[in-house]
Amino acid sequence: MATHVLWQADVADFDAWLKVFREDKPMRKAAGIVDLHVWRDPDQADHAVALFAVADLDKARAFFDSEELAMHHERGGVAHIQVKLLTPV
């Protein structure tokens, strides 16, 4: 069974962030991360939430901790990031 990652962050501009997020899909795919869902909080318009499936937990952790991703977050106006790893029981 796949491990899942729940990612949440405040973004400066949701639409600008979503554009960068979509452009970064090949980078996530190369890290073995599959996009499942993306949500916008209806009560906080500039809060983004995404759910991913990952096959290799160590590879996913390395991706989420990478400097390259940090630069993309900066480009997308991302702040207050929370990443939660979820494993099936």
What is this entry, summarized?
This protein has 89 residues and is an alpha+beta fold. It has helices spanning 14-23, 25-30, 57-64, 67-75; strands at 3-11, 33-40, 47-54, 78-86.
Mean pLDDT across all amino acids? 89
Through-space gap between termini: 10 Å
Described by the principal axes of the CA atoms, the overall outline is: globular
- Give the DSSP E fraction (strand runs of 2 or more residues): 35-45%
What is the spatial order of strands in the main beta sheet? Answer: 2-3-1-4
Helix fraction, binned, reads 25-40%
Count of the domains: 1
Query: What is the string of SSEs from the N terminus onward?
Result: EHHEEHHE
Rg, rounded, reads 12 Å
Find the count of extended strands (DSSP E, 2+ residues).
4
Structural category: alpha+beta
CATH architecture: 2-Layer Sandwich
Map the helices and strands.
Elements: E1 3-11, H1 14-23, H2 25-30, E2 33-40, E3 47-54, H3 57-64, H4 67-75, E4 78-86
Antiparallel strand pairs: 1-3, 1-4, 2-3
Organism: Ruegeria marisrubri
InterPro entries: Dimeric_a/b-barrel
Protein name: Cyclase
